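Long-time lurker, first post. I've been practising inverse folding by hand and with some scripts of my own, and I keep getting stuck on stretches where the structure tokens seem ambiguous. Below is the full token string for one chain I'm working on. Before anyone asks, I'm not after the true native sequence, just a reasonable design that respects the backbone. If someone could post their per-position residues I'd love to compare against what I wrote down in my notebook.
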């Protein structure tokens, strides 16, 4: 049985890219999801605990995550849950892992600019291996529509948005 879940949280570590034993690119990072609740006694919002997840993003999703995510980014991650027990140095523990199917910035807390990747951005080695020869010199078509940034928040307003992050909705 595969459990699929969606977690909203903050990137807790900078994504690190490596490869599996089979040569598949994978990007790993830690995700912190802090639950908040309203305390009637103090009339204030309080943190009620943080859940920690290890996220693994494979292939192109991992490459895009490495290029796009930084520590502190608010994200939404959807993927398959894996819970595993471990033992190291006489200690026992449980790890909660997510094999990511999709990752995106949480737009409640800021803006982001989407840049669609072309097929030409795939590693040339993989393309050459499939064709058994040289890679085409002409890249696939890229969406070159002009980017409309008229809606973007100005720099001085960004600090206000970051301060508003601590205010619950």
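-- Answer (accepted) --
I ran through it position by position. Result:
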């Amino acid at each position: 049985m595969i459990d699929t879940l969606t977690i909203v949280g903050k990137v807790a570590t900078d994504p690190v890219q490596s490869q599996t034993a089979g040569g598949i690119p994978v990007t790993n990072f830690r995700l912190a999801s802090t639950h908040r609740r309203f305390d009637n006694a103090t009339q204030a919002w309080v943190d009620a605990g943080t859940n920690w997840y290890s996220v693994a993003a494979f292939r192109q999703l991992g490459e895009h995550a490495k290029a796009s995510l930084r520590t502190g980014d608010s994200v939404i991650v959807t993927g398959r849950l894996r819970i595993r027990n471990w033992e190291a140095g006489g200690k026992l523990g449980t790890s909660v892992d997510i094999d990511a199917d999709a990752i995106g910035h949480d737009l409640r807390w800021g803006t982001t600019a989407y840049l669609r990747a072309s097929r030409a951005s795939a590693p040339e080695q993989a393309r050459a291996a499939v064709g058994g020869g040289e890679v085409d010199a002409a890249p696939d078509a890229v969406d070159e529509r002009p980017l409309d940034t008229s809606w973007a928040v100005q720099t001085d307003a960004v600090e206000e948005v970051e301060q508003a992050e601590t205010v619950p909705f």
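A couple of notes from the structure itself: Strands lie at 4-11, 16-19, 25-39, 44-58, 74-88, 91-105. The radius of gyration is 20 Å. Happy to go over any region you disagree with.
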